[in-house]
Every structure is written in C-alpha cells, then in structure tokens.
Please model this.
Amino acid sequence: MTEFRLLGPVEAWRDEVQLTIEGRKPRALLAALLLERGQVVSAEKLIDRVWGDFPPDSARTLVQTYVWALRRALGDVIETKPAGYRIRAASAATDRDRFAELTAQGHAAATDGRHAEAAALFTQALGLWRGPALGGIGGALGVAAAGLDEERLAVMEQRAQAQLGAGTPVDLAELRALVAAHPTRERARTHLMQALYRAGRHAEALEVFAQGRQALADELGVEPGPDLQALHVAILRAGGDPPEAEGEAGGERGEGDPAAVPVPALLPPATADFTARARPLAELVRHLDGAGGDAASTPTALRVCVVSGTGGVGKSALAVEAAHRTAEAYPDGQLYADLSGATAPANPEEVLARFLRALGRPVPDSLHERVDLYRSTLAGRRMLLVLDDAGSEAQVRPLLPGAASCAVLITSRSRLPALTGAHRIELDVLGPAEAVALLARVAGAERVAAEPAAARCIARLCGRLPLALRTAGARLATRRHWTLRTMVERLSDEHRRLDELAVGDIAVRASVALSYEALDDGARRAFRLLGALGVPDFAPWLVTALLDTDACSADDTVERLTDAHLLSVASGGHGVGLRYRLHDLHRVYAAERAAAEDTPQLLRDATTRALGSWLWLIRRHAAAAPSGELEMCAHYTTVRAGAPVAEDPAVWYESEAAALVAAVERAAALDLAVPAREVALALGSSSFGVANRFEEWWRTHDAAIAATRRAGDRSGEAMLLAGLGQLRYSQDRYAEALTYFEQARALVEEADDLRSLAVVLAGTGSVHREQGRFAAARAALSRSAEGFRVSRDDAGLGYASRLAASVDLEQGRHEQALTTLEEAHSAYRRLGSRRGVALTLRTTGLVHRALGDHSAAERLFEQALGMLRDLGDELMIAYTLQALSKTRIRLGTATLPPLLDALAICRAHHDPLGEGMVLRTLGEFHLAAGRPGQAAGPLLHALRVWEPLGVPLFRARAMRDLAEVRETQGAYAEATALRADALAVFTELEAREQAESLVW
Model:
C-alpha cells in the first residue's frame, strides 16, 4: 500500500522508500485528490484547486498530463471515471487518517478522565506533522490547508489541557510559541497561564495575561473573555489552584451573550406518512436525548450519529423524524443542511455561511474564519445539527461543532468510515410487514386491509424500498377507482423496472422512473425542465415560467409532483411563501429525461422564460426602492412580467440567491448570452452589490462573460467587465477594479456608446478617488456626469455628481462641491431613490463639517442616518455613524457606542476601508478626550488595515493624528517624521490639508 503524507510537504512512500513526485502542480493535484479520497473529483474541480480563478487555457490537458505523470510515479492508484478522477481508497493511506484516529482516541481517553494517556495520544498525533499542511502549496488549496492547520492547533491546545489535568509537565516553550503566533487564541493563553502558575512563576503568568489583553485590544478592540479574566483574578488572589477555564470544560464561548444569539429552527417538515423504522428510530432518539442532557455532565467528545444506506431507503425521513422528536432536548435550536453529496456536493463554506446567518453572525471570507466563528458560537449551547446526504468526511468535518453540548445527525450513502467515534446505523430495505404498513399509510388502511395479498405483492414488486412504495401508494391514493390488484398488474408489466427496483442505486433510478411515467404530460414536462435548470430549490411561480402557463395550473402541477414524492417542501418561507426542491437523484434523472425527450431549443426557451421572470422581479424591486448605484444595463430585453413580487426584497434575495446563481450559470452553459448577461448585470446593481454578496456577484458575472464572449457581443462584454470592476471596487481591491474598467473602456470606445462610456468613467473615477488621484478622478467623473446628462440617466448622474463633489471636497473646493451636490440631490429625487438622497445628504454634511459649520453637518448626518435606518442599509449606516461621531468630536458631544457599532458593522461586511475610517475616528475620539495613549492603538490598526488597499490620503491623515499622539508622549523626532510624511502625501495629491504646512 502507498502511504501519502499531507501533514507537511506532500509526499508518497512505499516500503519505506519515498517516491519522486516532480513539480508543484502535480503535487497540488495529488493533494486535491487525497483530500477527497474515495470520491470522484471532476476535472473542473481539480482545475479550480490547482490554479484557482485564473487557470491556463490548456488546464484540462495539463490535468490529464499530471495524472499520467502521477501514475508513472505512484502506480495505478488513480482511477479515471466518467465524471473525473478518484484515488483508490483501498490502496492509499494518509497520515491525516492516522492523525484523526489518534486524536479521536485522545478525546475518548480525556472523556474517561485518563489524562496522561490522552496527552500521550495527542503527542503521538502531533508527531506526524512535518511542517505546514500540504507544504504551503497555497492557492485554491490554501483553505483546505488552513483547515488542517487549525486541527493541529486545536490538538496542541487539547494536549496542554490533558497535561494539566494529569499534573504532568507542560511544554512551556511550545505553548509560548503557540501564543506568540496566535495572540488572540484565549484557550492557548489560558493553558500557558495555568502552566506557569503551577510552576510557581506567578509574575510570568500575569504578564502573559497583560500581553493577551493588549493583543485583544489592539487587534480586535475587545477585552479578554470571562474565562481568561477569572483565571487572572484567581492568580492575583494566589489562593490555591486556579480554576479551570470555561473553554476546558465546555468549549470556548462565542462572541457576546448566548441569550443574544437567535434560536434557529431549520428542520424541514417531518414526513406525514412516516412509519416503521421503530428500532433505528428508538436508537437514534436514545443517542440524541443522551447528547442533549445537561452540558456540564456530558462527555467532552461531540456526539455524532451517521445513518447510511442506499438512495431512497429512507435515511432523510428517519433523520428528520428523530430530530423533531428530540428537538425539545436542544432548546438553543436546530440547524439543517442538504449537502447534496450524491450529485453536486455543497461547498462547506457556503453551508457555514448559511448557518452563521441563521445564528445572527457575520460571515467571514475564509473557511478557516467561518469554522472558528461557527464553533465559538455553538460552544456551550445545546443545538442539534442535521447534515443530510453528506458526500464525504471532508465535506462534513468543517461543519462539526466543537462543543460536546451539541449533537450531529448525518445521513449519507457512504458509511463515512473516517468519522471515528460516530454511532452508526445502516438502513436496509423495509421488512415485509413494515413495507405493507407504509403502503397502508399512503394509500389508505381500509384499501390495504381489503386486499392483503395484493398489498404484499406490491411491496415485493417495489423491492420494499420506501421511495418506490410511497410512489405506488401516492398513485393509489389519487386514483380511488383503482384496486390494489390493478396496481399489481401495472407493476408486473414493467419487468425491467421491477428487476432494478430490487438492487442498489439502479433501484432508485427505477423507482423514480416509475413515478415519472405515472405523471400526466404537463407534470412530466415540469419535472424535466426543473431538472434541466438545476436550481437547488424554487418557488412555485418558476414552474409558471418554465411551462409558460398560468399560476393556478403551475400550482396544480407542483402539487401533483409533490404527491408523487418527486418534489418535497424545502421551507415554509418566512415572508416568501413555500419553496420546493427536487431530491438530488430526482434532479439527475429529470435532467437525463430532458436531454432525451426535449429539443435543445425547447430547453433554451424555457430557461429564457425563467430568467426573464427573475429579471422582472429584480427590476420591480429596484423600481420600488432604487439603490442609487450605477445601472450597468440601460435596457433589458428578456423581462417576462407576471411573477409575484415579494413584500420584503431582502428576504426574497436571500431565499432566491442560490437559485439565481445556478440559473445564470445554466443559461450561460446553454449559450443564452443575453439573458445571462442581463440578469447578472441587474443583480450587480441591486441587492448583490448593496449587500456585499460578493461570491454570487462574481459567479454570475464570470459565467455570463464567458457566454457573451462566445457570442461575440463586445458591448455586453464591456458592461460585464465594468460590473466586475464595480465588484472589485466594492471589495476595496482597487488595482484589480481599475484593470477591469480599463478593459471595459477599450470596448465601449470602440462601440462609440456614450452611456456605457459614462458608466465605465464613473467606475474609473471612483477608483481614482479612493487612490487619491484627484485630477484623474475629477476628469473622469465630469465626463461621466455629462454622458449621463445627455442620456437622461438620473441614477448615473446622481452617482457621478456625488462622487465628483467628494473629489472637490478633498481638494478644498467647497462651494463647487455644494453646487455639484445640488445636482446629485435633484437627480436622486427625480429617480425616487431615498438611498441616493441619503448618501448625498451625508456627503453634503462632510462639506459643511470641512467648512467648520458643525451644527449644520450634524443635522444633515442625522437626517441621512434616519433614512438609511429606514432602508436597512447597514454598511452606509456605519459610514454615517462614523461621520456623525467625527462631527460630535468637534462639538464635544461624542460618545463611544456609536463608533463601536460602526466598527462591528464594517467588520461584519468585510469592508476594510470603512473599518479603517472608524478606527481612525476612534483614535481622534481618544485624542480629543485627552487620552493619547488609548488613541495610538486604533490609529496604528487603521494604518495596518489600509496598507494593502493603496489609499495614501487616508493613511496620511492617520499619520498626522499619530504625530499628535507621539508629540504628547515626548517622541518629538517621530512626530516630526510622521508629519513630514503626511505633508508629502497631501502636497503630492493636492489635498486640502496641504495648507496645514503653514501652521506646522
């Protein structure tokens, strides 16, 4: 057997001899396969893992070449499958598997109070590591490597905890290095303090606390958690052994008060006809109830139950039933996710994003940060997590809580053997009596009692597979004139399908085919078109568009599909109505039937109608509350009126986001360039832009631009490039934004399109403004505004004029700024954009503040803040709170809470520009209050946050403030140098502050 090593540089060994793997890319490809060992990995996924967002044109050929090279070096350990490649699980072992096994044994030993044994097992596990995971391959595999490195850090902390519990010496050097590398990890710092205290080094323990407190204040702006503070107090009192930190007994606490976290209830409805399965149901309930006891008395190991079996055997129904029956044991909530492991496995990052939103938490960028925040939030809480249809251990691991107070229930076609320590239940088909009982629940007890022999025959012909039995029973229930003998005769005519109903995955296909053939023509067509579109879930109106029919007929079709168990209810809606989904295998089967039965043109027409209906809804929401942002597309040609408009656009966008992205990607794959482009551009100018839905924004534009290029639509390509520029601008990635805008400009100038040029110039000017290139910014924005005037585009005119006025402000042209803002205000009022008016009021307030009219500025900021709060625009609320607080600093009435609120919002939205602005204002707040020592930390942090953004003017202003701090501290030389550096920037950029040299 070949041994693969991932816990360090990627290596392969056989018979204690290292095998040669030449090249960084082949090693990356091997690592990508090993991380999903036993699973088929598509070529597209491998390309993404090896090259990230910018693969070469020859990427697919290179993958084949690398696989050939790896086979030559390693032997036949990589299989080629129709859908991709797979590492043969039986012929490959990894150090990661051994690490997981030893870690699980260590957890078990710790749970039983065998701390010395646990410490030894953790030490053995850590000894497998030879450096950073995957040898620092980086790129798209960096997220996976970071997850492995996080597991290592967690085990290092657990070993220290076990050593403390056993009373054995702790490796202080290792703990110090861990704390130094990760200064905000409170659990590691707690262990280091305890170890130092028990070694009689009390002063050093107190110093470790002081350093941690400073690090938390500097990097996060928070105080140490209650556990760390309690330990600090105990050491100060020097009375006996310090107490165990909370993190040792029940996991680390999440941010804030646990009572402030929402109580999610994401379980789907239980199956109405659930029957049988008494033994596995009782077993699951017993284990879950045991896991839901008092957190203080539960073991430290997380309870995990895995329900496995073939498709259609009833895993999901059993899991949901057990979850509902034990929900009361988990008063802090229940989380649920369909991981779609059998078809298109859900990305753990996307699932974590959904869970964090349900828990009322922000969504960080990286998988590592999402896992940290997720586990911290669940620590100490009694929550039940249901992961339905998991594809692999790698998909599940990031979703596992770290707290023993939680429980996890997983369903999967795989046994997931690498999830060590899990309680396992493997479902087989129903017994003969159970199968008849299920049929009776669906078709009717009296009818089954009247024809028991026929009922037993139906159960046998259906292979006693629950999915097939429910399908047959539903047909009987909706056809009261049929006898059970009629159903037996119909099933007996389908010999091929009956044979397949008795075996494996083919049995599931046969049972779905049986349901499909029992439908009327309209329902079959709807089923096929839903499968072809490939959306994860949908509202009933989508069937109206796909079938080009009326709402009542579409609703009836959806109900018939639901009755046949080919659709299930995905959610109750909360303001957006019922949503349905195709089971993953049903969706695959439906897409196959669409390819076989429908013409390519029919599929293209249906997809166009679906996107047209979505576009109608997006435009209706935009018309009701214009965002004031740039409209990339002037005219939409594929709008299809008639879909119902939701009352709450924000909730609607949240529920439709995944379906919209999937539909745009499907349209692009069908070369429907115009619908894909128009929906992508409309989304970028709506909620995806305003709400910082960066991932969805990128995916829709990336798919649409590929189709647009294939179609040779250079004008459409230009606007999509501008949309990508606006995306990067919103992400504060200004260099990339400028590149996209320059590419777009070349195309629109070639087409002589005045309005499109105005859009591109507005984007270019906005980037120049943030980078401090004011002359270039003013020129671009002036040309843009003129183009929008000629085009009679009030949204564009308001946007360009407001930004042009902000440039005038930065260069001290206050009267010109006010005049330009009047034009922006008028344009937004004509448009009906309350958000645009609010942003203009904010900018006007900035001008009045610069003129020294602080009372007028305060009134304008308060007016803007009230409007933005009505609109629920969190990020702009933060920007306005910052501006208002700065004004009140000048008036001597500022308070700290609004600034802390603004800082939290900017961080939640991953907005480093705004974060730096608030941090600088915090520094000014402390300076004005005569606390220069407290001002230095936020100012330095602002400089660090802004450093990678390329925003010299913002940094220069913070440097000027820091010079004042240093001067009060007696560091006159440093203060002089800081002022000189700031003045050089002010002078170079011709900023209004260059006049300050007269008083320095």
Notes: The first strand starts at residue 2 and ends at 5. Confidence is low (pLDDT under 50) at residues 243-260, 291-298, 494-508. The CA atoms of residues 623 and 832 lie 9 Å apart. The radius of gyration is 31 Å.
